[in-house]
Amino acid sequence: MSSENYIDLPPLLSAHGTITLPGSKSISNRILLLSALAQGTTEIRDVLLSDDTERMLDGLRSLGVAVEQLEPHVFRVQGCGGNFPVKSAELFLGNAGTAFRPLTAALALSGGEYRLSGVPRMHERPIGDLVDALRELGADIECLDNEGFPPLHIHPATLTGVGRVSVRGDVSSQFLTALLMALPLLGREVTVDVTGELISKPYIEITLAMMARFGVNIARDDWRSFTVAAGSSYHSPGVIYVEGDASSASYFLAAGAIGGGPVRVEGVGRNSVQGDIHFAAALENMRVDITWGDNWIEACRPADRKLKAIDLDCNHIPDAAMTLAVVALFADGTTTLRNIASWRVKETDRIAAMATELRKVGATVEEGADYIRVTPPETIRHAAIDTYDDHRMAMCFSLAAFGAEGIRINDPRCVAKTFPNYFTLLHDVVKAVPVIAIDGPSASGKGTVAKLVAARLGYHYLDSGALYRLLAMAALRDSIPLSDEANLAELAERIEIRFEGEQIWLDGALAGDELRGEQCAAAASKVAALPRVRAALLAKQHAFRKAPGLVADGRDMGSVVFPDAALKVFLTASAEARADRRYKQLKEKGIGANIAALLLDIRVRDERDTQRSASPLQQAPGASLLDTTALNIEQAVNEVLARYPV
Fold it and tell me: Where phosphoenolpyruvate is bound, by residue (predicted)?
């Protein structure tokens, strides 16, 4: 179930399949900017379409760069040789660091007046080290709110002729990337010295590889200094392709590791320039079988092999390392991820955010300035995961759905930053705990049929009608009027319900025959018509979905509660047949009944259930109709099983 505010992922059993990765965000934005800085026209293929690339495209267009979209993922950029046609502009760059930092450097070394801003989180992300290095070269940059942070006002530069500058490497590799990409605009030799340990080295490798594709080769002294030669300038390669995103590959490779696989990702392989492909090696250390191709990677784990905890320096895979923190929930032992200080200055403080959300699902977590240590719980709990407007938090924690209870991801739309159709592709390669949803009107026999189908398959069973009867019983017990929607919803959230074979428990007490009585049934029908009550009981119903499967009966199982059910059956019978069955059931229990009164009650209840505003009784889309008027119970059970796509 999903809304604009959250998506509920059911408990997942396995993962298997092949997906084609979207283009790399890091490569897409580098190539878009280099194409604008180059001489000539560049056709860029397989560009990622996401919030971050849209910010870069919008920025370039605002600067007067001719950008034409030829196909959904193909763009043609007319380079301006670093001389942007528009000399005064205001650029809003969202939370896109791969757009904000490089554009800052390129604009700071040109002659123009520019204001660069972003979302509030971008204004909290440091940029002072880059600004200081650019000022050494003669850039005139004003930090408008707080020194060292966006938003920025860039004035025309007065170049100093300095041939050597320094930049810190231990906060963000994007500072060095931005400098290196902008320095060829000066046309003279400049050396950049890196102070401190350079983090995220693979991202610098991407920068150097992309610059080389545009004709600029950088001389370097290991990771200590980088020199741009005099006379360097960018020239279009004509046509260039964007690799699939290796960071995004991590979620699907991890799904193959947790869910057994094999899962293959296409778009990256053994020849990739992206450091995050080494995530696959980390999975190998956790006892996952990895197979490589030139343009694909595949992950598989035999069912009898448990994942092993690891202790890993993650400097080389800073983004993909987040995925390992969630994979650790399924590993044997404590996993430690080190050298991840850059997490602190990303879209959110990812170390703090990851620790908070991992604890929600039951993990024991220790966090430090540059590490996180994760000990998995015995059972991964269901939780509503907050994502902090951070796409990677949402995608990482989707993997927690392989726990026994599934997971809720709040603000799932944040994945649009890099991977807008992530949840669709995830759905295509995972198998959820199957559900058979049997809906139908009152006294149609759905409860009896559902219980027997569950027994035949060895599945769990949910009698949703019993939930509403139990709530009605609790309301009568607590003297809450059946029309008091607010208090009934609160009661629904706090009551404890337990099914044990034929026995049903309410708040620790065994429910008696009154649960199946007509008074209780009538009361249940009234409270079930209240929208807030139905919403409150939804989570309780979802909790019954556990391996190996669930058979659920009710009146909105296939339409509202389990819309992704493997089989939906709308089971019905004539009102006369249903009244006769209810009469016989009550007589067998020694309960007095009048068949005419039962028939009238059924017709009244049908009318009320079909007309109610909240989850009206109806045949769900995709549900098959099963009329049992002329069938006995055994025949009805066999018919349901025959329709089940095992």
Answer: 25, 97, 125, 174, 350, 392, 417
